Amino acid sequence: MTRSTWRTRIGFILAAVGSAVGIGNIWRFPWLTAENGGAAFLTLYLVLVVGVGVPGLIGEFVIGRRSNRNPVGAFDELAGRWYRPLGAIALIACLVILSFYSVVGGWILRYTFASTTGAYFAAPQQYFAAIDYGLGAVGFHVLFLAATVAIVYLGVERGIELSTTVMVPGIVVLFGGLAVWVSTLPGAGGGYDFYLSLDVSYLRENFFSVLPAAAGQALFTLSVGAGTMLTYSSYLGEDRSLAADGTLIAVLNTAIGVLAGLVIFPLLFSLGVSPGQGGPGALFVSLAGAFAELPYSRLVGVVFFGVVLLAALSSAISILEVLVAYLVDEHDLSRGWATLGTGGIFLVTGTIAALSPSAFGLLADTLSNVVLTAGLIGFLLFDGWVLGRLAREEFGRGAGPIAQIFEAPWYYAIAVVLPVFLAFTLVTSVAGIVGIDTSTGSAMALALIGITAVVLTFRRHGIPVERSA
Ligand code: PFF
């Protein structure tokens, strides 16, 4: 069976942007920004998107395009069976993320419907509390999952490429319109201040709690670490600049994320709602409650949640596609059976998250940061220490003169600097989860020891260069 490829370059870019832009930008990002000091978080996050997210994204692309395989098969193809577990981490990350993502997708779907009648207008807090977990949440999760399965079932070109080519421009146009409209509301200025003015002392005092949260969000928002970008780039045919494509994708994702903030924060401030309440319900309770006060409230609600729904769907399909690609490539399943089978798994795991707030919180808040970080560390060390020269060669394939300047800095960043940094944030967040208070020094030391151990193991089992040349 011949493997699918993207029809056009722009089709690939829009699909990748569709994966990146999602509830991470619209729901998780404002929630974390509000919890972590507004602009202080935004600043650190932007730095990390440029310094960690983009090189990491290119690191995934290198493996995907070089191998033309799913995450597990990619490592096997490039370096042998011994490396397959690196891809298994990515599969686990996909399991973790889509399990809660589909529940949030279900909430959004419900709010899109509920906006047509204004069902949540009178008592937004109570409305959300009544629908967030339980059988209703299960029902809407199943509907959202069914839509995801349907698109992936149709395949890379007819399903993913076609749908994201419509969805992504739709998201930009609708959000752009909302941002302009929101700026005309009285009192919107307070939102811009909160969002855009930097409180350096907050950042200084809380640096080590804000850092892992911002790093995790930088990966989450770019869909890096779970193999989605690796899989999407495995459908690339011709040689184009991975660095240029990666940068463009990150710029578009960040622009849409900032645009979402320019809708959400001014809107909240104009209605006197504090964004600091935080928690996963923030978007639904405060924002949805705010809509009730506005002219054309139902229309605003339908448009807003409709856009968020498109964004969520275009990300969910990228996660499902990783598992489908794995089953199709490695186990010779037809796309149809692979899609239905993985859909069945998420039917169960998502139902658990839709019934249990603690399972949901664990998946959405802490575990997803951990699996994405661990996944990306594996990808980057593989690029840096196993592929080595070949990774640089792949980076250079199709690269223009500007991208070529970045080849060496990119390589040293992904081989050395980023793994150490990511291991540090990983140690800090795992310590946070199990309740150990680590000092910066001990977290750094553990990170260094861990990375060195992995690198030494990789060197020992490293591949002779000819094998995948
Ligand atoms: N980037 C998506 C968002 O911001 O909503 C979430 C995501 C998709 C994370 C795919 C990871 C992933 F592999």
TrEMBL record:
Protein name as it appears in the record: Neurotransmitter:Na+ symporter, NSS family
Lineage: Archaea, Methanobacteriati, Methanobacteriota, Stenosarchaea group, Halobacteria
An annotated GO cellular component: membrane
PANTHER family linked: TRANSPORTER
Membrane topology annotation: Multi-pass membrane protein
InterPro entries: Na/ntran_symport (IPR000175), SNS_sf (IPR037272), YocR/YhdH-like (IPR047218)
Transmembrane segments: 12-30, 42-64, 85-113, 133-154, 166-187, 207-230, 242-269, 302-328, 340-364, 370-388, 409-434, 440-458
Annotated localization: Membrane
PROSITE patterns: NA_NEUROTRAN_SYMP_3 (PS50267)
Record bears the keyword Lipid biosynthesis: no
Alphabetical UniProt keywords: Membrane, Transmembrane, Transmembrane helix, Transport
Entry annotated with the keyword Nucleus: no
